[in-house]
Write a structure and sequence with these properties.
By secondary structure, the chain is an alpha+beta fold. The protein is about 30% helix and about 35% strand. The chain has a six-stranded antiparallel beta sheet, with helices on both faces. A five-stranded mixed beta sheet has the order 12-7-1-14-13. It has a three-stranded antiparallel beta sheet with strand order 3-2-4. A hairpin with a 2-residue loop joins strand 18 and strand 19. It starts with a strand and ends with a helix.
Length: about 425
């Protein structure tokens, strides 16, 4: 399994995450094309340059609006680019420093519209929407308003939107199968937010990190920004030491400030796990529904999958008073359980849900392409003990080929199944 490990010994911010992914080898064009696809009305300049914090060198990511005054950086080598192709220079403040008048506040609904109308790939679009929905839920709890009505301040600024979208594009490019992070640290002291001065961790950051291991250190610095917290909460499946793996790349993302004695960098490590069977924990959310229409149940299922559920299913059952009903079952990462439970309560007729932890064993899974008489088909394979024991055609891949060739999906699926068996399973 291809794993990305975020070593957050100096916290995490959106720009540091993008810089670390760039240092892992993601091409500049991946990030700049994603920003260009946003079509933000204020327009964006973006560039990378090499920076250093306490002897550690890495990439620094900068984003600013066309309307902002331009500044220049003199440290180390620069690599400038503009999403539309124009070469520019600029300065980017990280989230903890975004309190200048140029910050544009947007509502969650407005950001959803920007993402939906963008030219981003579906995968990047879905993931970015999931991250912003997570932020909206957290902000809504703090301010006592529905998620749809939440007004973002710092996180609604163009540079924060860019950090999140660029991160999603970079991670899609790396094609990692699992993201893990170290336990998080946060400084002490106070931080200036749009609504005033608050003690660290900042309210939104703390809400986003609910269920995630966190400890404070006696250093008066904001190490974790709301954007960084939201990215980790959405992507990371577990938090702890770096797992045993064959390391294939190491990247460093450089932060804006000096945070002596702790170097202000984010380290990202990518590699392949040695283990081919993996144990992890999930949360299972269930509820009984005896008064929901099929249309509403389908809509709720779609929403839950879109917002990060690992799996959603419904089982037809006979309930009390001999009523026909359904048991809705959602499998999710532990850090997503409360958020998805909230979606169930909003979008179904449930008055409550049951949540319990479950241990699961999963095979080492990879996707490989095979050639059939109809065209290339993606096959999902599962290994145990060094041997392939499962090989299944990806339905969407079969469907796309069937449509392009004018044949039935069943015909393509059967052919792909036969080729998969011959290629991977037949000994």
């Amino acid at each position: 399994m291809r794993i990305l490990y975020f070593d957050c010994f100096s916290g995490i911010a959106g720009d540091m995450t993008v810089g670390a992914l760039r240092d892992l080898g993601v091409d500049e064009s991946v990030f700049l094309d994603a920003l260009n696809a946003l079509h933000l009305p204020e327009g964006l300049h973006a560039h990378f340059h090499r920076g250093e914090r306490q002897g550690i060198s890495g990439w620094k990511f900068h984003v600013h609006e066309h309307s902002q005054n331009e500044h220049h950086h003199d440290d180390h080598d620069h690599s400038h680019a503009h999403p539309g192709g124009e070469h520019q220079k600029g300065h980017h403040h990280n989230e903890s420093e975004r309190h200048a008048p140029h910050v544009h506040g947007r509502t969650y609904a407005q950001i959803k519209t920007i993402l939906e109308e963008s030219g981003l790939s579906d995968a990047v679009k879905r993931r970015a929407q999931s991250i912003f929905h997570r932020i909206a839920i957290a902000e809504g709890k703090i301010h006592g308003v529905p998620a749809e009505d939440v007004g973002f301040h710092e996180v609604g600024a163009a540079d924060s939107i860019a950090d999140i979208v660029a991160t999603c594009a970079g991670l899609e490019s790396l094609a990692v199968e699992r993201v893990i992070a170290s336990p998080l640290i946060e400084g002490s002291g106070w931080v200036h937010c749009a609504h005033g001065k608050f003690p660290l961790p900042a309210p939104a950051t703390l809400a986003l990190l609910e269920g995630i291991p966190l400890r404070q250190v006696a250093e008066e610095t904001e190490f974790i920004t709301p954007t960084g917290a939201a990215i980790l909460a959405d992507y990371a499946t577990s938090f702890g030491p770096m797992p045993a793996m064959r390391i294939s790349g190491i990247g460093y993302g450089v932060g804006t400030r000096e945070t002596t004695p702790r170097p202000n960098v984010l380290r990202a490590v990518i590699g392949e796990t040695e283990e081919e069977q993996e144990n992890d924990s999930v949360e299972v959310i269930e509820c009984n529904l005896d008064d929901i229409t099929p249309e509403l149940l389908a809509a709720a299922t779609e929403s839950l999958l879109k917002q990060g559920a690992l799996d959603v299913s419904s089982t037809s059952v006979s309930m009390k008073k001999n009523r026909h009903g359904h048991i809705l079952t959602v499998i999710t990462k532990p850090c997503d359980a409360d958020r998805l439970a909230h979606i169930i309560l909003q979008e179904t007729s449930a008055f409550g849900v049951r949540i319990h932890s479950a241990r699961r064993i999963i095979l080492d899974r990879k996707s490989e392409s095979v050639t059939t008489c109809h065209g290339p088909i993606e096959i999902k394979i599962g290994r145990f003990g060094g041997k392939v024991i499962q090989a299944s055609p990806e339905f969407e891949s079969c469907k796309a080929v069937a449509t392009s060739r004018g044949v039935s999906v069943q015909t393509v699926f059967r052919e792909a199944t036969a080729v998969a068996y011959t290629t991977f399973l037949k000994s």
